[in-house]
Amino acid sequence: MSRLSESRISHLAHLIIDGLWKGDLADFSNEARALGETKNVLTEFFGGEDRLDEVVRQKIQSLSRRVAPGSREWDVLYRQYLEAELRKQRK
After folding, report:
1. Residue 66 region, left (φ>0) first, then alpha (ψ -120 to 50), else beta?
2. Alpha helices of 1-91 — where are they, by DSSP H?
3. Quick one: angle between helices 31-61 and 6-22, nearest 10?
4. What is the pLDDT of residues 38-75, one digit of tens each?
5. How many other CB atoms are found less than 10 A from the CB of residue 41?
6. Mean pLDDT across the chain, nearest whole number?
7. Measured between alpha carbons, how far is 72 from 70 in angstroms, rounded to an integer?
8. Residues near 82 by Cβ (< 8 Å), separated by ≥ 6?
9. CA separation, residue 33 to residues 36, 45, 47 (Å)
10. What are the percentages of helix, strand and coil residues in the chain, rounded to 5?
11. Cβ–Cβ < 8 Å for 17, 35
């Protein structure tokens, strides 16, 4: 999944805030707070992807037989388990 460094999160947050301001989509009374909240949301979002990736990988590893990472079977299982976990989260 996606692991982003603090500097990349910060860069994305700045792009989002600048885009909202330049597009006249939002007016921030406290830009520093808006930037901080944007960073928090991005960190939580990408952290959720990391947790989901870990759950899926653990499920594959817990199978009674070994499935080689990168193999076609592993890729198919990964997609299947990922889709199942995403469905669980939507409920």
Report:
1. beta
2. 6-22, 31-61, 72-90
3. 130
4. 999 998 887 777 788 899 999 999 999 999 999 999 99
5. 13
6. 89
7. 7
8. 52, 56
9. 5, 18, 21
10. 75, 0, 25
11. yes
Q: What's the alpha-carbon Rg for the chain, to the nearest Å?
A: 18
Q: Which one, of 55, 48, 51, 56, lies nearest residue 74 by Cα?
A: 56
pLDDT digits (tens, 9 = 90+) for 3-48: 678 889 999 999 999 999 888 898 889 989 999 999 999 988 877 7
Q: Which two tokens stand for residue 20?
A: 């909202």
CA 45-30-9 angle, to 5 degrees, is: 30
Entry pTM = 0.54
**Cβ contact 12:56 at 8 Å:** no
End-to-end alpha carbon distance in the chain: 22
- Which pLDDT does position 73 carry in this prediction? 95
